[in-house]
Amino acid sequence: MKNIFADRMYTVQRSFIREILKVTEDPSIISFAGGLPNPKSFPVDAVASAAAKVLRENGESALQYSTTEGYLPLREYIAKRYAGQGLKVDASEILITNGSQQGLDLIGKIFLNKGDMVAVERPTYLAAIQSFGMYEPVFRDVPLQDDGIDIKALDRILSGNRIKMFYSVPSFQNPTGITYSREKRKQVADVLKSHDTVFIEDNPYGDIRFMGEDLPPMKYFLENDTITMGTFSKTVSPGMRLGWLYASGDIMDKLTIAKQAADLHTSYFVQRVVYQYLVDNDVGQHIKMIKAMYKAQRDAMVSALERYFPEGVGYTKPEGGMFLWVTLPEGISSLDLFDMAIKQKVAFVPGQAFFVDGSGTNTLRLNYSNSDEAQIEEGIKRLGRAVKTLIAEKATVQISKIS
Amino acid sequence: MKNIFADRMYTVQRSFIREILKVTEDPSIISFAGGLPNPKSFPVDAVASAAAKVLRENGESALQYSTTEGYLPLREYIAKRYAGQGLKVDASEILITNGSQQGLDLIGKIFLNKGDMVAVERPTYLAAIQSFGMYEPVFRDVPLQDDGIDIKALDRILSGNRIKMFYSVPSFQNPTGITYSREKRKQVADVLKSHDTVFIEDNPYGDIRFMGEDLPPMKYFLENDTITMGTFSKTVSPGMRLGWLYASGDIMDKLTIAKQAADLHTSYFVQRVVYQYLVDNDVGQHIKMIKAMYKAQRDAMVSALERYFPEGVGYTKPEGGMFLWVTLPEGISSLDLFDMAIKQKVAFVPGQAFFVDGSGTNTLRLNYSNSDEAQIEEGIKRLGRAVKTLIAEKATVQISKIS
Q1: Which of B65, B260, B273 sits opposite A15 (nearest CB)?
Q2: Which of A8, A156, A201, A267 could pair with A218 as two cysteines, CB 3.0-4.6 Å apart?
Q3: What CATH code is carried by the domain that includes residue A345?
C-alpha cells in the first residue's frame, strides 16, 4: 500500500530525546539526558498501602469503568489546592488526564486546524512541538529572557498574526529552567488580554521550587481563556501517568468530549490509588523531601559547572524543577559535543531539539534530578573536559584557516 | 473569543450513550443501557496481591517513566496468546494502549485526512464513529447479516470508492452481538486483498465465547495490513484502561509515534500490576467463570424475550460478548420506547446512535452482562409490556387515520 498515512504523519518524527535515551541506556553512562524524577523520591510503601486499601474497601468499583471527567474527590482535591493559591476554582473545571502530556494532545485536538498559528517559547518543550505538531499548525517562537518571555516580542507576534494559542512553561521551564518573574506574569496577562489568544500554561514543576519566592500560576493573573496543566508525575510518580487540565466553560466542555473519544477516561484504579495516597499521607512533607534532594543535586551541578566549564560558556541557575540550560560559545556545536561526551560516558540532550526552526545548535539541556551528587561531579568534570577540547579544536581549525 | 475551536469540534457530539447512562444512574432503574462488565467477575483479591508484589519487588521501577511501546513481558504475553491461535507474531508487533478506545484514536490519527473514506458495519460501534469522527472522515456503511458483513455490498463499496480503512467488530459485535462465520472471515480477507484498504479488527469480546465454535481473529485470515485491537477490559478490569494494538512494520512505527505524542506511554504501574496478575493466576479458569456468568445472563434474556416480547419483534442470539440487538416492527420508534421504558424504570440504548446516517430508529441494544437473572427477568417483562403498548398505540393511530 502506498501513501496510506495521514499527511500529519509525514511531518512528525520520533522524539529525538527518546532516541537519545536509547543510546544512554548503557548503565555505565552518566546521563543528564533524560527528564526523569529521582526514583529514590517515590513513595513506594505509601502507594502500596493506598492500593491495598482501595482494593480492600472499594475493589469492584475501582476496577470498573468510570466517568470521563475523572474521580470527583480527586478533582476536588486538585481544585482545593488551587484555591489555596488564591484561585476561584470548582472541581468541574478539572479534567483528569494521562499525565500532562495527554493534556497537550487534547488541547491540540480541540483548537488546531491545519495551518493555525501557535506561539511557543524559544526554546520550548520538545514534546509540545510533537503533540501540537500532529495537528499541523505553524509555530511562531518568542525569545525567552532570564525572567521569562520577551514581552515586546510576544506583543509584536500576537499583534501581527492570528495566533490561536500561546504555549508556555512559566515555572522552571523545560528545557531552560527559567521562571517568569511576578512582574513578567502580570505583563504577559496584560498582553494576552488584548488578543484573541488562548494561554496554555504547562506547570509540571511548579511545586518543586527549592529557592526564591513562591509565585502563583499564570491562571491567577489571567483567569479567562487560560488552560493550566498539572501533573502528579513530579510529586508522586510519573509511571502512574496522572495529570489534569484546569479550564472552564466551553473549553472544558470540548476538552471532555475530546478526552472521551481519546480513551473514555484515565485509569480509574490509578486515580483511586493516587487519591488514597494523597489523603492518607503528609504530601507537603514528601514534596519538601523532593525539594531538598533536587536542591542538593542542582547545587552540585552549578558548583561543578563553575569549576569545570571554561569561560565563555553560559548556564542558567534554576530555582526549581529538574533542568538547567547551557549555552556554548557561538559556533561550538552541541551535537559534536554529544558525540565526544558519549565516548567519555556522559550524556545530555543537544538543545537544537527544543527550537522549532532547528537553531540553537550551541545549546544543551542538563538534567540534575536523576543523578546523585557524585555522578554529577564526575559527569560535569568529563563534560567540561569535552567542552574545552572542542573549543580548542575549533580554535585550531580557525587558526589554520587564517594561516 | 469566537470560533476558537478546530473545525472537528463543531461536528462531534458528546456520546449519546454516556448521556443516557447519566439518566440511568438512578439505582432503582434496571439498566440494560451500559456496556459494563459484571463487577462480580473482577479478580479484586488477585489484583491486590499483584499490586502488593509489584510494589514490594519493583516499586521504584513500577512508578518511573517507561517506554512508549509498553512493558515488554506484557507484550510478550499478548504475542504468545496470539501465537496460540496460529498467528505468527512478535512482541514488537504489540503496542500497549489505554484500553482499545485509545487504539481507535491512534488509528484515526495516523490514517485519516479530512474527507478520507472509512467503511463501517451497519450498525457499528458508536465510540468508533466518535473517535474516527475527530479526524473528519466520510463514513460509508455496509449492512451486517446474521453471519457477518454483506460481502457483495462490501466489495461494491470498496470497488467504487477509495476507502482508506474498513472498521469491523467480527466477534460478538457491539451493538448487535453478531459474529462473522469462518466462511465470512475468509471471504472478507479475499475481498480486502484486492483493495488498498487497511482492515481494522476490533476484538474486545473475542475471549468471551460461551457457545459455538471458537474462531481465529481476522488477522489470521488477513495478515498484512490488518490492525487487531485487544483489551483486558472484559477479562480482567475495564477501570484499569489497558488494551493493545497488534500491527506490523510501518503501521506499527507510525502508531508508536502517535502514542508517544498522545501520552508518552500507558500507566506503567497498571501494566506491571496486570502482568503480575496474569502470570500469577489461572486466567483461563477466570475467563471460564466469566463465560458461565454471561451465558446464564444471556440465556435469561433470550428466554425472557421469547416469553414477554410480541410477534414481529426480532432479536439476535449471541454466542458470546455482552449485547443483543432488538429490531422492532417498522415504524415503531425505540426513542418513544425509551421514554416509556424509563417511566417503568428500565433502560436500554436506542439503536439510532449506532448508525452513521441516523437511521435504525426501530432498533435497540440490550446489555446483559451487568444485570443478574432476576433483574433481566423483571426488566424484560417491563420492556415487553412497553413494546406491546407502543405497538397497540401505533395500531390505534393507524386505524384512526384510516377511519
Answers
A1: B260
A2: A201
A3: 3.90.1150.10
